[in-house]
Amino acid sequence: MLNKNVETFLGCDSEYADARIVLFGAPFDSTTSFRPGTRFASRTMRAESYGLETYSPGLDLDMEDASVFDGGDLDLPMGSTELALQGIEDFVRPVIADGKRPFMIGGEHLVSLPVIRALHERYPELHVIHLDAHTDLRDEYLGVRLSHASVMRRAWDILGDGRISQFGIRSGERAEFEWAKAHTNLTKFDFTGLASKLADLMGKPVYVTLDLDVLDPSVFPGTGTPEAGGVTFLELLHALHQIFRLNRIVGCDMVELSPHYDQSGVSTAVALKLLREMLLMMEAPHLQEAVMI
Known about the structure:
By secondary structure, this protein is an alpha/beta fold.
């Protein structure tokens, strides 16, 4: 039995036993290839969340009615990538075993890997929807196979061909794009074809990984690897609405916010609104049933 974090994200006040979703932070950025700082994302978001309302006008749902447990930030060693990833996996395994859905706040994108590994053992037919500016398909980066630049390649090692669907991709090596043609479902620049892909995935277990740099840096400058030409906030929100209509979202994450690169706090505010909406989308079937009753 886990105990609630002392300071929780806004509206994430359920006890572990009662929660359907377990939110937690993975403050790790040791393989960041450009500008570090994502280790501070979850702590900053938790503190800043109290500037946000619990009610979503777009969904007509309220976090006060949701069932989300905040497990706080994991204590992850900065000197060992392998031990940090193992720490995430050790935390999430009992959460999955208890029938709850993990929602992780990174951290750099490599933190997605241990959650995908743990979920795949529970759901062998697991698919991943990957929203990002970058391919993340290198087999290694500067000789290192465990890198935020190779996280989707390592996920492919687990899942195999056709199980990773990538959207919004606009940066990567030529070889990565060529490799993707044979091994993943990759859509450049935007969410074209999302509806068709989601129809194919209906009823299958799906993990959603959102790298916030899929957003244009004019909307979201607070990230370590900003890439011009991204989607707008409303385009991303609409895509998430479509994705979360699937009835088997078994977990998700949000990664790559580096709060200190945006002193205005706008990037953190954008991440927080997306977090609220995603949590409520995950909870929507339960909350709408409660309203109907």
